[in-house]
Amino acid sequence: METRAFGNTDIQVTPVGLGTWAIGGWMWGGTDEAQSIDTIHRAIDKGIGLVDTAPVYGFGRSEEIVGKALADGRRDQVALATKVALNWNDDHDKVWRDASASRIEQEVDDSLRRLQTDRIDIYQVHWPDPETPMEETARALEKLYRAGKIRAIGVSNFTPAQMDELQKTVPLHSLQPPYNLFERDIEQETLPYCRENGIATITYGALCRGLLTGKMREDTQFTGDDLRKNDPKFQGERYRQYLNAVAELDRFARERYQKNVLALALRWLVDQPGVTTALWGARRPEQLDPVGEIDGWSLDGEAMAAIDDILARCIDDPVGPEFMAPPAR
């Protein structure tokens, strides 16, 4: 897979990265460690050069699994990204934002231990914390950057105004926002801001919690702690609208490119100006088999317009990913 410069850093990444939220198990119905390690190995074997995780994904479980998967000599084959600034209680039933200096100092060492590494390539503030002064957060990150514990400073789910505030104190290298065919709010201000300021992007939610795989049906059941039970996209008439859009997109992809909707969704992301890496969430090795389907073709302006027309015709009640936002303290 081709590589791309990660903003204004010396880090190289691939257009597709591996997202490991589901591997942590929390809100995804549990995890299988051996299968998860095999998935990470498969991703690397297929040329994926960025692995993204976070402490809150399984309350350390995802980071531990990623660490074990990379400990066999694969660590230097990927850019390793994780996050900071969420906290939780002992029962794991409450999560809140905490970007205080003390939390960052504790979390970075916990992450380094779980990941079995001496440095984190891309360290991202998971959500902005309104209870902590931005300068305090920035100074803590700057300290880690100068110490060599992290190679790039990133944020996730930040607005341009919040990124401006952070950059008053410390350089900012990347943003991780939600972005996919169905969730496009960042096109208005955030993506142009990143392009204009040389800020790399790692977009998450490429397949919109599985909607854009083409495998969801109206009678698909979500059990246990699966977050889609609370996702408004998967409820009632709105869910039917999104399924209709997926069916139309799949027909378009097959007729125009002899591809399926999953390949179309990823190719669409990779072709967006300002997108550095699009995360592909997988928890089983075979889910990565289609990764080669995005190579060797691209979407032109006519195709982009046709896709927009399908979305406008099929979805009259769109909704974003706001339901996933954790509360402040």
Describe the protein in words.
The structure is a single chain. With 329 residues, the chain is an alpha/beta fold. It has one domain (4-216, 262-296): NADP-dependent oxidoreductase domain (TIM Barrel). The chain is built from ten helices and twelve strands. α3 links the parallel β4 and β5.
Brief write-up:
GO terms for molecular function: oxidoreductase activity. This protein is of the alpha/beta class and 329 residues long. Helices cover 36% and strands 13% of the residues.
Index terms:
TIM Barrel, single chain, two-stranded antiparallel sheet, 329 residues, eight-stranded parallel barrel
The helical percent reads 25-40%
CATH architecture: Alpha-Beta Barrel
N/C terminus separation: 42 Å
Tally of individual domains: 1
User: What is the CATH homology-level superfamily?
Assistant: NADP-dependent oxidoreductase domain
The run of helices and strands is EEEHHEHEEEHEHEHEHEHHEH
Describe the strand arrangement of the main beta sheet, using strand numbers. 3-4-5-8-9-10-11-12
Main sheet characteristics: 8 strands, parallel, barrel
Low-confidence stretches: none
CATH topology: TIM Barrel
Taken as a percent bin, the fraction of beta residues is: 5-15%
Q: Helical segment tally?
A: 10
Name the overall outline. Answer: globular
Domain NADP-dependent oxidoreductase: 16-311
Protein name: General stress protein
Organism: Halovibrio salipaludis
GO cellular component, one term: cytosol
